[in-house]
């Protein structure tokens, strides 16, 4: 299993207390849903061992403070805010997408009902803004504004994704635009928010944000590869899981738009109303590969990571911080889960 | 019909352009849901005549700028933000409460689906924060923080209201706490946000907020009276509508907690699983009255308005502004719709 870089593994210790303090301000009913969703408690409110999730976004937020020469602790409000916003978006997305499972547990809406999950999502989104606006220092309002703008892009991405469900044809550009909102916007914000909180100069925060946008695209490209060709024993998801749900992921959309004979056969399989059998799932994966969807996705992930590295190389960063950002970029591209 | 005070009627002209500009930033799918919900377009996206709603909150926001000696235009971002937040909460509440009608039209979620309405609500909430943080002037971040805190209280109120649905007994204190969140928090914010944006001194903004909190409680108390004893021809709702839906409104909860023989009979009627017949609805209204629920609500509304007036009297306000706030308070208590 590809290991998280060391700074990522240590992040929980720094962020968890601040995150728990923020969420602890919610009313008791909303708290219960949020605590379950964050992996702190079970459906009965009993404490759970170990937190869920990779803590990738908070780790990047802490790193982005160091990019501006500030101590990582100064970005704690930013780390908490990006984690809260991520949690909000997953809570609402699971309802909208009808996903019943999240991180190997029943999704919050299946446990507490849709109303409880809608409300908890609303509360976490508001809390993210409050936490940023309460941060000491000059960059607090600018950080809250960056967070709100990222949230608007995230919502636009999810909106496009919902629209795809009603469409016969999706272009690769539209699919990339969807991912730029749904995944990359919040990662771009995570990579810059610590520097923004520290009132760092605009060229630095812009470079970090652009690095994060490319990192975010690469993250999703790799995620989409794992969703088809990932090892179930490592990803924790069933084999070919994205194909089972007929997800319009980037490799699929690239394949469907390739104009090859394989893409026509794939379209026939993918638009069928009936569930796909095991052999048909394997066939769909082969067709995506034959139509060039896998190769395009791998190449695009490599191109995005290359561009992310270039942006970082041109930014005025302390060397150890640059090295850690590159470490995270490596993790994102080489990870197997 | 009790008329709106003049300043209220003129508000739409000032606020509408700014509101439309803000909502116009949303992605096209989310925009469509929001524009329908705000009464600008029909379900097909065609423009509708005349905007919906009383514009009470934006009117108070503009007035609160004048309270601090600033021109009403300076509070436009505040007026837009409170209207956006109100719109967000109605969008999500209608889904959670299963309400299929809003302002004499099908609720947005029945037209665009739950997912579209969840997402549009999320977008409007984020937009409220963005609009405030983009406002020029020193008070912008403080205003966004006040708005986020009010939104958190609003969510806590809705959370308590959802909890009531699963409960056998609700105290009058709990019901008032619910209303303090669900209705009064945003009105309190509306009454002060213009002054906050103008970076007015804390004693003034606190007095305006307290005025608004009492005004908001009175508003809901009157609303609850109209929901039972209002004239359907004027309110636009069916007679006894709150009793049909077995709403745990303040007069009902006051009556149920009165310890009178009438309250016991009311409890018997109200907890029955079957829908109530017309004669039973009339009987329930009579029992609420006999149990003192109507008298308590009227007295509490008067007490709250009296307290609101006292708070205003002690605040350092220009006389014409105080007069207009009192005008709004009169409208809130004397209105018949």
TrEMBL record, chains A, B:
This protein's record includes keyword Disulfide bond: no
Record's keyword terms, sorted: Magnesium, Metal-binding, Transferase
Protein name: Polyprenyl synthetase family protein
Domain of life of the native organism: Bacteria
Signal found in the keyword field: no
Alphabetized Pfam families for the sequence: polyprenyl_synt
Organism: Actinomadura graeca
Record-linked SUPFAM superfamilies: Terpenoid synthases
Similarity comment: family membership: Belongs to the FPP/GGPP synthase family.
